[in-house]
UniProtKB/TrEMBL annotation, chain A:
GO terms for molecular function: protein-glutamate O-methyltransferase activity. Coiled coil: none annotated. It comes from Thiorhodococcus drewsii AZ1. This is Chemotaxis protein methyltransferase. The keyword S-adenosyl-L-methionine applies. It catalyses: L-glutamyl-[protein] + S-adenosyl-L-methionine = [protein]-L-glutamate 5-O-methyl ester + S-adenosyl-L-homocysteine. It is an enzyme of class 2 (transferase). Residues 1-280 form the CheR-type methyltransferase domain. It comes from the Bacteria. Methylation of the membrane-bound methyl-accepting chemotaxis proteins (MCP) to form gamma-glutamyl methyl ester residues in MCP.
TrEMBL record, chain B:
The keyword Lyase applies. Pfam families: HEAT_2 (PF13646). The keyword Lyase applies. The lineage of its organism: Bacteria, Pseudomonadati, Pseudomonadota, Gammaproteobacteria, Chromatiales. InterPro entries: ARM-like (IPR011989), ARM-type_fold (IPR016024), PBS_lyase_HEAT (IPR004155). One of its GO terms (molecular function) is lyase activity. Keywords: Lyase. It comes from Thiorhodococcus drewsii AZ1. Residues 1-10 have a biased composition (Polar residues). Residues 1-20 are annotated as: Disordered. This is PBS lyase HEAT domain protein repeat-containing protein.
Amino acid sequence: MAVQKSISEEDFRTFREFFYRKTGILFEDSKRYFVDKRLLDRMNATGSETFRGYFTMMRFQTSGEELQTLINSMTVNETYFFREEYQFRCLVDSVLEELVERRADDSSPIRIWSVPSASGEEAYGIAIYLLEYWPRIADLDVEIISSDIDTDILAQARRGRYGERSLQQLPLSLRNKYFHRDGDHYRVDDVLREAVDFTRANVTDAAEMRGYRNFDVIFCRNLLIYFDDLSRKQTAESFYDALNPGGFVCLGHSESMSRISSLFRVRKFPEAIVYQKPWEAR
Amino acid sequence: MALKKSQQTPADAKDERHLPRDLSGLLTALNAAEPMARRWAARDLAEHPEASAALVERMRIETEPSVTQVILTSLTRLGDEIAVAGLTDCLRSEDAMLRNAAIEAMKQLPDEVAPIMGQLLEDPDPDVRIFAVDVLESLRHPRVEDWLIRVIAEDPHVNVCATAVDLLGEIGSERAAATLRALKSRFADEPYIQFAADLALKRIGAD
């Protein structure tokens, strides 16, 4: 008779501590069912009879493949307009204000990089947020560049056509102002489509990253979590050189630059925690 | 003033380089006065397997932490014998940032670090042995438990054993149980060892 596989309280705690160290994601006790279910799925998929056997295999597997599969199964990958909106609020209320103050008479455009672009919700969302909630946009130029490794998704982003689900968090007034009905979808206004530059880029490729420079803010949310430690570190170092001194990196809510690299300063603004390249950096 | 399309394409920015990006140009740039030039050289040298020695050499004299970090990442990517020896040297450094970065880098190189792990765990300096156990924390290698069992069986230093026991509590199996009990006898007067070994035995399910 097959033995029923299970995750004990001790197993859950051991896994939780390890997963937090590796990814920065902390599962509360209330997530026990969610975690157990995915662990048991992976144990079944890998033919592991016990949690301990699976845990050891996953941690010390040379390829690191199972750890990556597990991370993917423990994270939810979806995007929509104004996702984690508090970071956009931080952008307009704190980050840009500090940058503008330090730039003084510098009239060059403020450059924002959104990566990965996915289907464009974040980049267009930033554009909408600036137009709506940052009055200084009337006096300053802002460039928004958005990149992705996937050329199909970039084409989709350039088209700017979205279903109801992508727009669920967007206030109706903004939906009406910046989108046009297109069958059962919504098409983003041409003003926004023409303002955002979509480019193909692989952030882990040092050669490709050479061209990405002089940014003031980088949004890189929920991407690094899918990378292994070395790629994460390499990407953080590329971001460092892609930023102007004093430039900021915004990561996803479960990601922490402190765990990846010590190059950046942690900045705790009222709205969010972001990471800054020191002003004195050379 | 408003949102505007970027005037600077990624291709434009590539032309900011002053030296050729071949091995010789990069090795020259690795010693440039500007830290940014050194960072870019160190980053690009990860594509040149013959660059490990130059990177290790630069790391020894580099004073700018951001350049050191990029050198460490490139050495990790290269991961050859010279690179691993350079990383291992950092375990003896007084600079905690460098030491920790080297530990993190070595964790990424299980196959390359494995042949020297035995030697590291027998190093005369107990701090180096502790750092070697720290490397084991995330070293993806099937012999991790064996190495840890050997540490708690043989190492004379209580702090080295304590570090190893903590880790065994997480990844040890029944195989470690007898040695954990023996460790308790070997350090009968050390309350932390008693506590940590008991916890490890409980986690392993052998208490």
